[in-house]
């Protein structure tokens, strides 16, 4: 894969590995997150993070909406500690 520096590794993870996992798991971000250690208790920012959506805050309490669900986000920039935390 031609990885010689951390910047090469970061680009490989963000541009190749994560999109491949996204396709492999049929857009199920909770599974993609598990590959990257989502849910482990750590003080290091995760590669994949989950944010709950509060539909009531968006639409108000007068509108009947579902639970709001959640959204997942990929970190814009990875650090060596973030990558190391995947394996710990």
Automatic annotation (TrEMBL):
It comes from the Bacteria. This is Uncharacterized protein.
